[in-house]
Every structure is written in structure tokens, then in C-alpha cells.
Amino acid sequence: MRKIDLCLSSEGSEVILATSSDEKHPPENIIDGNPETFWTTTGMFPQEFIICFHKHVRIERLVIQSYFDLVHTEGQLQNEEIVAHDGSATYLRFIIVSAFDHFASVHSVSAEGTVVSNLSS
């Protein structure tokens, strides 16, 4: 089976919940595959979003590009990589409990892995 970026909207993934939305930077931007777009929170913490795969997947590596770390990095995006061992999922839930500034932005979430099975209708 080939490994793909399971989080892309073009692969059928969807942001099904976000605690805030700005019309210029909606949560769908997290999974659109465009490096120029992002989701931004509208202040206050915690903030969260949920990505639904609409299928059972096995995730091997997760990469989050964002700007909300507790350490100020002069406008540099933070890249957080998580290696998953036997990580199976249908949903991914992310909770941002605090940030350096009043706002946070998530530029992309990438989940490298394979589709295990489709969900029954």
C-alpha cells in the first residue's frame, strides 16, 4: 500500500469542528494543501479542531506547522513531528491550551500513512 497524506481534503478528509473561525482564515485551510493559507484562532484559549478522515487509517508520522508555541520565534513557523507506532484513527483532535500571543495559527497538519478500511455506510 502506498503512503499518502491522509489529512488532505483532496483525500476526503474534513475539518468537522473548530472552536473559532475567521472568514479570511477558515479551518478548512489546515487541510487544503496550500502553504499560503492557514486557520487562525480569534483569541481566548483553549482552542481546538477535529479532522475526520471518513475512513479508518494507520498513521505513521504526523507533522503540524503552526505558530502558537510558548516560545517566541520571530515569525518562524514551528514544525512539530510525531512518529506514531501502530497509530490507527478515524479522527484527530487537537487542543491548543495556550500560546505566546493572544492568537494562534495552524498552517497545516499532515498525516503520513495508509488507509486501513472504509467506514460502513
Can you put this structure into words, describing what you see?
Strands 1, 2, 3, 4, 5 and 6 form a six-stranded antiparallel sheet that branches. The protein is globular. 0% of the residues lie in helices and 52% in strands. By secondary structure, it is mainly beta. The protein starts with a strand and ends with a strand. It is built from no helices and six strands.
Q: What is the fold's blueprint, element by element?
A:
Blueprint: E1 4-5, E2 14-18, E3 39-40, E4 47-67, E5 78-96, E6 105-118
Radius of gyration: 14 Å
SSE class: mainly beta
Helix content: under 10%
The major β-sheet equals: 6 strands, antiparallel
* CA distance, first residue to last residue: 23 Å
Summarize model confidence as the mean pLDDT: 88
Binned strand content: over 45%
Number of helices: 0
Which overall shape is indicated by the principal axes computed on the Cα atoms? Answer: globular
Order of helices and strands: EEEEEE
Which runs of at least 5 residues are low in confidence (pLDDT < 50)?
A: none
Number of E-type strands: 6
Summary tags:
mainly beta; 6-stranded antiparallel sheet; 121 residues; globular
Structure described in brief:
The protein is mainly β. It has strands at residues 4-5, 14-18, 39-40, 47-67, 78-96, 105-118.
